[in-house]
Model the fold of this input.
Amino acid sequence: MPSGSDGLRGAAIVPAHNEEACIAQVVREIRAFDPGLEVVVVDDGSVDRTARLAAQAGAHVVRLPFNLGIGGAVQTGFKYALAEGFDVAVRLDGDGQHDPQELPRLLEPLLAGEADIVVGSRFAARDGHYRAGLARSLGIRLFARIVSLLVGQRVTDTTSGFQAVNRRGIALFAADYPHDYPEVEATVMVHRHRLTMKEVPVRMRERAAGASSITALRSVYYAAKVLLALFVGLFRRSVTPLEEDTE
Amino acid sequence: MTPLVVSIAGAIASVVLLGVIIELIRSRRLRERYALLWLLTGVVLLVLSLWRDGLNTIAGWAGVTGYPPAVLFALGLLFVIVVLLHYSTVISRLSDQNTILAQRVALLEAELGEREART
Done:
């Protein structure tokens, strides 16, 4: 977001769990891309130097007292953004796989008012750039099919955490955010709240360091759980009330 | 052979169990994470209530010759034990986290008090 040009304040939410190897680099890259973005690192109960290195690199660090999991960590960031009155929030992973240089692609449709939430998709471009393990890519494809059906809109990358949301999106996610593999359920939630979502193709990098938190066995468990959540979510009548977005 | 009435009663009980679980998830009083085991329990009991030959076969494997529905009992009990064990681990984690939270709040309060005293 061009800092200050249109008077909008933006926050970059970066969930991080034991990412001491790359968190400083991630923070510096975001700040170099746009010094106007406030970088909020949510340290999800790390036992290494993640919090200290992030703060030294110039991030605002929110430390969780213990590990909440990705959903709880990200939601903490949205709650901060809501309380501090940010107009726009972007979300990047703490492992460096989301390149801040791609942020303009996410922000452009958002600032143009085309969508309340813009998701960077690894697969929308179909250039075969991104490679995932077998279990993971099967899961990703399965969820993409199901979610596309549920929301009546083509969604190619339901597990992408590379997102930009406006004030309405911030308010929704601060009020209610799913737990593990939150992006899949969040997509459906966004649709149910009549917020608009748009996917844009982005390139993602290989993880700079560290290991993905998702192993093959766990992905089966997560798949079952997320499918159950999606199924049950369909029959949930109550929609989470949001705070007034006019201020 | 399992008496028909027992099969029907077992099936009805399983369906009621499944219905209650789904309603609890739907109204957000039960998280999906803790519901999976219960759903598995309900589905297995339902299948074995309806699939009477299967129940007999499993009873044969387990050496239950007199009364096959005893297998339903045994399985139900097994699931209850597993769920309870799971809860024990969950409660242990929650109480650890509760300790950490209380300590964190106490430390923050102390720091806040000191700051207020200074100004």
